Hints:
The complex is a heterodimer. Chain A folds into three domains: about 5-115 and about 245-310, 3-Layer(bba) Sandwich (FAD/NAD(P)-binding domain), CATH 3.50.50; about 115-240, FAD/NAD(P)-binding domain, CATH 3.50.50; about 330-410, 2-Layer Sandwich (Enolase-like, domain 1), CATH 3.30.390.30. Chain A is built from ten helices and 28 strands. Chain A has helices at about 10-20, 55-60, 65-70, 135-145, 155-165, 190-200, 250, 300-310, 375-385, 395; strands at about 5, 30, 70-75, 80-85, 90-95, 100-105, 105-110, 110-115, 125-130, 150, 170-175, 205, 210-215, 220-225, 230-235, 235-240, 245, 260, 275, 280-285, 290-295, 325-330, 330-340, 345-350, 355-365, 365-375, 390, 410. In chain A, the strands form eight sheets. In chain A, strands 3-2-1-7-19 form a five-stranded parallel β-sheet. A five-stranded parallel β-sheet of chain A has the order 9-16-10-11-12. In chain A, strand 14 and strand 15 (about 230-235) form a beta hairpin. Chain B is α+β, with helices and mostly antiparallel strands. Chain B has a single domain (about 5-100), classed as Beta-grasp domain (Ubiquitin-like (UB roll)), CATH 3.10.20. Chain B is built from three helices and five strands. In chain B, strand 1 (about 5) and strand 2 form a beta hairpin. The mean pLDDT of chain B is about 95.
Amino acid sequence: MGTLVVGASQAGLQLAVSLRDAGDTAPITLVGEEVYAPYQRPPLSKDYLSGDADIAQLCLRTPEFLAERDISLMTGVRVEELELFEGGPQGSARTTQGQTLEFDRLALTVGARPRRLEAPGADLDGVSYLRTAEDATLLRQLQSDAQSVVVIGGGFIGLEAAAVARAQGKTVTVVEAADRLIGRAVAPAVSEFYRAAHTRRGVDVRLDARVTRLSGKNNRLQVVELSDGSWIPADLAIVGIGVVPRTKLARQLDLLCDNGIVVDRYARTSNPLVVAAGDCTVQPHPLTGREQVRLESVQNAISQAKTAAATLAGASEPNVAVPWFWSNQYDLRLQIAGLSRGHDRFVIRGEIAKECFSVLYYRDETLLAVDAVNAPGDYMAVRKALSQGATITADAAADNAVPLRELIMPQKIGA
Amino acid sequence: MPKVVYITTDGTSRIIDAQVGESVMAAAVRNGVPGIIGECGGNCSCATCHVYVDDEFVAGTGAAGDMEDDLLDLGVADRRNTSRLSCQIRLTEDLDGLTVCIPEDQ
């Protein structure tokens, strides 16, 4: 009995630890289907893929720490069915191994799975995905033998993987279906910067290009064919076309799902006795509370897990943290604070040509977000302003001569 | 294996056997040293692994880089001369016994 946390992810681990920090003494069981104890995912497409880190270094907490905090970790165990007794919070979980785990309270931190490529030949050997440590380990091996790598999908995962492959001297092509890179997360000016930056480093970036077929011999990938009729020799394809939140278990409990498990600011699902956190959720925008957003980031996994733990512990601590995010590609360090969606104006600071700049986004003159490339001062200044409910006016930000930190000012009342 | 001594705000110390090559932040987080968070995993993006390096080790750990400098300036509550982001201090055998104090707030 006690609390069952399904998903031994960054969010799941944080939830368990935060529950202990809140003084909860009931048993906590953290169940995960992967064989590894909870680990950091972001380096999988960066340092781990390039061989600069091993799995042990990615491990988030030692077994001794978990034992000391009385958190039971079950790895290699997949929860197949969930049931609540009379609406909860008590219930039981059944694993694929046939075990039954009873619980007093339930938390879902089940994450997301990579969207699968739907094209003929997508199941050939040499077509790989990148989400788990197992995926990354396989990819690392495949990549060491590969000459020609085709990255399908020009989002963060794809571009980070492309950067690693290019740094290893591979021939690299990025194929993106939309008319710009990282379209869901950054504004067109930043997309264009990344297209040019990858091109300068020798990557062949194809926009508005769809994969129509993958083909090969003896079940091994050799060629990627595109919608414009062109074809690219490839001995490795890395598919990074987004993720699909895992909602199967939530649906078994009749929890409301809409492109993710719907939660409120307190990480409560549509059954307020059950909480959820991390990539599997959609939640009210942490800063505005208005629209529903799905945030796929470490920052959100941690922040929302803390909120969920507080809710289970009987406190009310809404998730109102400023979202932030980072991506490393080559020597380019992108740092994002806030959410730029819905902006109606942007201001560029610094010099795009020198690969050191930032873009501040506004809506109705309200500061929304920053994308900073090799400009950590600008990133931190905006993050600080947003977290204080302060602002930096667009007109002031346009003056490169003044550091942003000197331009932070309280928000006008009513603004 | 270099040892790292973490002194928390209440004056208690935790001694961790760290690995050469890992960061002062990573060793702390994996072992659950309270007060060092390291949300970004060592990417110089969150400023939640701030420490004060003991005077004796300041020369050995070196100065903050440009990126770290910006984060320290804007991201930490009480920056001092000995402030570092512990994710940017990589452990070597020479740093055996490294002592850092953890600030009250991250």
